[in-house]
Amino acid sequence: EGVKPADIGSDENLFDEAGLALDSIDALELGVTIQKKYGVKIDPQDKNLASHFQSVRALADFIASK
Question: What is the pLDDT of residue 9?
Fold first, then answer.
């Protein structure tokens, strides 16, 4: 809360305390939004899932790869 999109660096950690410190609910909301907006299926069993959600850049790369 209180963070503007322009204030988020593309390589800033999304879930790290030193970054945005998002939580599991935020991850779920991001996942649902990505699925709805981009039609990207997110496999909860994907062993690389955490790395896909590491940063804005990682998410963008993941979406682009699909």
Answer: 92
End-to-end CA distance of the chain: 29
Rounded-to-integer distance, Cα 41 and Cα 16, Å: 24
Distance between CA atoms of 36 and 30, rounded to whole angstroms?
10
pLDDT at 18 over 90: no
Sign of the four-CA dihedral 29, 23, 57, 51: negative
How crowded is residue 64: how many other Cβ atoms within 10 Å of its Cβ?
A: 9
pTM: 0.82
Long-range (24+ apart) CB contacts under 8 A made by 36-39 are 38/63, 38/66
